[in-house]
């Protein structure tokens, strides 16, 4: 098993509420969290809910994502001490992009700036 495999098996339905809690602690909303995740992945709100309901892991969540936003490569910065733009593994990079967008939301960044 590769070191990242454990992360890839994490259920999106477990991560999503943590993102929402993080955002809500900073007076942001679930709608805003979903909006940035949909922007990144191309999911509709219904598609996002479907992934939550069917308990997809992160690997499946990104494999079934309609289309990664073409501007996602513009997402730069540090998550968990690692520069997202330097992450080699494509799936891990996508997961960190999602983490970074939620971080920016929680830090009070405007949606227009987050969704580059």
UniProtKB/TrEMBL annotation:
This is DUF2200 domain-containing protein.
């Amino acid at each position: 098993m590769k070191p990242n495999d454990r992360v890839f098996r994490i259920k999106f339905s477990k991560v999503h509420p943590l993102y929402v809690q993080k955002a809500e602690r900073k007076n942001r909303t679930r709608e805003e969290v979903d909006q940035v995740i949909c922007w990144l992945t191309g999911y509709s709100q219904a598609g996002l809910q479907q992934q939550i309901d069917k308990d997809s892991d992160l690997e499946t969540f990104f494999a079934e994502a309609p289309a990664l936003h073409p501007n996602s490569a513009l997402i730069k910065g540090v998550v968990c001490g690692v520069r997202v733009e330097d992450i080699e593994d494509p799936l891990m990079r996508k997961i960190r992009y999602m983490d970074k967008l939620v971080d920016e939301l929680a830090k009070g960044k405007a949606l227009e700036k987050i969704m580059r």
